[in-house]
Amino acid sequence: MKVLTVFGTRPEAIKMAPLIKKMKEEPGIEAVLCVTAQHRQMLDQVLELFDLVPDYDLNIMKQNQTISQITSNVIMGLEEVFQKEKPDIVLVHGDTTTTFATALAAFYQQVKVGHVEAGLRTYDKYSPYPEEMNRVLTGHIADLHFAPTERNRQNLLREAISDSDIFITGNTVIDALLEVAGKPYDFEDETLRNIDFENRRVITVTCHRRENLGENMEQIFGAIRDLANEFEDTEIIYPMHMNPKVRDTANRILGNTGRIHLIEPLQYQPFVNLMAKSYLIITDSGGMQEEAPSLGKPVLVVRRETERPEAVEAGTVKLAGVSKETIYGMAKELLSEQSAYEKMAHAVNPYGDGHACERIIKILVEYGEQQTNHN
């Protein structure tokens, strides 16, 4: 069975790398990898970390590219790959523009699609934008749906996806996280090398989503600045996103505050190690809502909604919204009340046990055998 995997961004690469590595070891699967390089530099870092060499590289990234350009360039670029490889199934991940465009390209070629991390929903098509609709549209093209949780399965069933095509697997990001966290590592970044992780409480911040640009981001950064000013035993680390709008806002609001460290984006291995050494995570990222709880770190999500409500229900994550007062108040509670902190830190992560890749491969092999018998 020939399986073509396509991804283009760093988060997809992180979550799909352990799956590709395991597929290459599986005798029943011929694994082919194509990257679109929707993100170039950050993608390459992950490929290097996991020792993956793509069979195809569309290299579509251009300065200030629009969503329309990404979509059309992926579809056009994949046409030749599909015609040459003739895969039995194409694997895509999550909710990026590469994911939706790949699923659509596969549909045009009448190639089966497997959707890893299927069934997450906010039910607001503009938040996260464009990710929510990328995920929904991919779900209605896909033939196999690898859902991390039972809630994701229920979301798909409500949209009339056949139950026999949905498989609960856990999330592959936990597989990747545990693989990387198990390796010894020393920080290369000078700022991180000089942080006293033993005696300081480190808060790691990430903030980059389109819907948070502008007023929301000003509120989020205002809360973070106030936390730094009040809690003198904290150090706040913010690996800044490359988006110039994000950087301008961060430098203006956080740039001159003591104990707030604005650093360059980190590769995955140092970032996992930073999470592991942190006391608290404040983020608008999706993946960190899954990863940090595996390391026993409470997460405050600075968004109005999340497509990962299981984490909120499990108590590993709290939805803090985008108002300065609420974010500050929730973080202050975790920094001031040990019982509130311990409750979150010891909650059980709902996203799996690190064996999602094995489950997906088993399903793919069985699916391939069924297709062969059917034909």
Automatic annotation (TrEMBL):
Class of enzymatic activity (EC top level): isomerase
Origin: domain of life: Bacteria
Keywords recorded for this protein, A-Z: Isomerase
EC number(s) from the headed UniProt entry: 5.1.3.14
Official protein name in the record: UDP-N-acetylglucosamine 2-epimerase (Non-hydrolyzing)
Organism the protein comes from: Anoxybacterium hadale
